[in-house]
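Quick one from the shared queue. A colleague (R.T.) flagged Lysine-arginine-ornithine-binding protein as missing a structural entry in our internal table.

Convert sequence to structure tokens.
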Amino acid sequence: MAPKSLRRLLLGLAVAAATLSWDDAQAKQWTRIRIASEGAYPPFNMLNADNQLEGFDVDVARAVCAAAKVSCEFVAQDWEGLIPALLAGKFDVVFASMSITAERRKVVAFSERYYASPALFVADKTSGLMDSSPRALAGRTLGAKSGTVNARYLEEVYAPAGAKVKLYATQEEANLDLSAGRLDAVLADKLVMLPWLKNAGDGDCCQVIGHDLADPAYFGEGVGAALRKQDADLKAMIDGALAQIRADGTYERINARYFPFSIY
């Protein structure tokens, strides 16, 4: 890890570079941005009692809007519809814990990373499972959220080894089937599953097995905001605002609201 003085210098240079691009983006006069999130992926994005979006993704998006001095409107959109609706122009940006992958880069652009999260397996405590290798999970029923890097990993690595893969519209549905004994294990983001395991009545059934999974070929380069490729000016604005909230401590305060450790 670099000394603090060097880290400050590097961060300062990143902010300066981003600000140059940001100034160009502001010249395009983006004054209002429509932002979509799923609303079903706590603690990153969920709907509150008033049916309003909240969570880590949403708080980061709000901070970006404040830093960029633009107004933002938030829209809830189911996971599978996020990229199609973005491309159709129903909103401008997606802040929904979307991993930056080569496959997704073919159709959308991404901001700079705003957090990193490896994946892991969570299994029923009574299953006897400890090893999460494809060989150890052959013949088992494994679950994941549909349309995610985790789903692709199960289908391309575990299914050929003999596992049965079941996909779900939301992470909550997958977790419910795991706790009810209808799945042997779930593959999901570590930062989502660890809080779930600590919730009495939710994750009491289960435990982490194996080790963290972070192969960039599948799990990408971290999580970023998705945008249309033609909106390079908006990407520059968002990257500049992300650099600013990292530099001024806003990001750190948001992080601390949800996690007792840095997730950047």
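The radius of gyration is 19 Å.
The chain is about 40% helix and 25% strand.
Added to the table.
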